[in-house]
């Protein structure tokens, strides 16, 4: 297998396009390890059918091995899904994500004042700038270039509008159920503090970076309570305040 001990290239004969170098079976120059027992030429090689393209999620397009629709090339040996968390160098690499940007960590993430609606869409938070009608939050509209809750609804968090009649009245923060994550709004209603989200209209749970003291308070998938703050689990990275994605840099370097 690749990485196995050898004395001559003939010891690597069971692996196509492998040679013995420094007593180790490795792929020949211009070839990449596909798995522990296979080397391949990677992307952009000539092909006549999809079977010639052995990189996962690639196919033969115009007689060249290229990534399938919905995937993008990473180096010459990976086709990665066009989603948040993908490696990037510039903002243009994240242009397939609505309101996406290339973060300082060189991954596609949501722009400031937006949140992850799904794996490839970032939407403006309530009370932040909007241009037309890109406010994706239920019961919200773009009014005066700000995403705002519709008439009769109140922002219980930065990502949720709820029927105003369902909110508990209050005079001060401690009138609300749990003052760590709730606060009393100017409208004298109990709402979630910034960077929290309403859960079943009866509690507020912290987004990434929010205060916590037990794991089940951290509602974001693949997050946990670490040093009293919600953070992504190991080998996951934050792409917005409400989303942890697999760290492709870690996965592809193994």
Automatic annotation (TrEMBL):
Domain EGF-like as annotated: residue spans: 46-80, 121-162, 203-245
Protein origin, superkingdom: Eukaryota
PANTHER family xrefs: ECDYSONE-INDUCIBLE GENE E1, ISOFORM A, FI17111P1
Protein name: EGF-like domain-containing protein
Organism of provenance: Cotesia glomerata
């Amino acid at each position: 297998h690749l990485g196995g001990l050898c004395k001559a290239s003939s010891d690597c004969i069971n692996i196509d396009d492998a040679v013995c170098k420094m007593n180790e079976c490795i792929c020949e120059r211009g070839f990449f390890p596909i798995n522990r027992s296979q080397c391949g030429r990677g992307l952009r090689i000539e092909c006549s059918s999809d079977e010639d393209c052995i990189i996962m999620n690639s196919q033969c397009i115009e007689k060249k091995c290229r990534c399938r629709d919905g995937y993008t090339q990473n180096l010459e040996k990976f086709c990665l899904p066009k989603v948040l968390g993908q490696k990037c160098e510039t903002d243009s690499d994240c242009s397939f994500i609505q309101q996406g940007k290339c973060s300082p960590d060189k991954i596609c993430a949501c722009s400031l004042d937006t949140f992850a609606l799904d794996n490839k869409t970032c939407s403006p938070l309530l009370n932040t700038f909007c241009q037309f009608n890109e406010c994706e939050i239920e019961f919200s509209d773009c009014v005066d270039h700000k995403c705002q809750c519709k008439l009769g609804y109140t922002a219980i968090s930065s990502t949720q509008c709820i029927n105003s009649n369902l909110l508990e009245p209050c005079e001060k923060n401690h009138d609300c159920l749990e003052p760590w994550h709730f606060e009393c709004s100017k409208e004298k209603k109990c709402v979630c503090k910034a960077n929290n989200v309403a859960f079943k209209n009866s509690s507020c749970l912290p987004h990434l970076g929010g205060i916590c003291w037990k794991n089940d308070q951290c509602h974001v998938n693949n997050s946990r309570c670490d040093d009293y703050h919600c953070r992504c689990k190991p080998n996951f990275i934050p792409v917005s305040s409400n989303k942890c994605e697999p760290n492709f840099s870690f996965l592809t370097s193994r």
